[in-house]
Amino acid sequence: MASVSNQPKKVIRTERGLVIAGTRITVYQFMDYIYGGYARSLIRQHFPQITDEQFEAVMSYIETNRAEVETEYQMVVKNDEEIRQYWEKQNRECFAQIAKLPPPPGQETAWAKLQAAKARLESKS
Fold first, then answer.
1. What is the pTM (predicted TM-score) of this model?
2. Per-residue pLDDT at 30 exceeds 50
3. What residues are paired with 49 via a beta bridge?
4. 47 burial type by CB count under 10 A (0-12 exposed, 13-18 middle, 19+ buried)
């Protein structure tokens, strides 16, 4: 006979996807760090607002349900990229107009340094 746990779930599904119960922190945020190659201890440091118990629960959940979490994470990343591209396209004209604006009064020197740094970055890519 299987044992039934009376422990409350630490990772739950909401309209935002998989989240740590009682928070707005998603499992997908952890996946960003995992994919980034962060060590477990460094991932922990990025979430000081949760308890060690919550952290261990989410990491355990990811390990236990890796295939499901990976599939959902890839969908989230794809959706985020589509949204980013949409808004970049929507705002392209506005960004072009802003780029043509003169520097704010009194900030000409800082503006020139910023423009030089941008030009260096663009020449590297």
1. 0.68
2. yes
3. none
4. middle
Q: How far apart are CA 97 and CA 92, in angstroms?
A: 9
How many CB atoms are located within 10 Å of the residue 95 CB? 10
Secondary structure in 3-state letters for the chain: CCCCCCCCCCEEEECCEEEECCCCCEHHHHHHHHHCCCCHHHHHHCCCCCCHHHHHHHHHHHHHCHHHHHHHHHHHHHHHHHHHHHHHHHHHHHHHHHHCCCCCCCCHHHHHHHHHHHHHHHHHC
Token digits of residue 123:
């020449």
Both tokens assigned to 40: 């477990």
| pLDDT tens digit sequence for 66-78 | 999 999 999 999 9
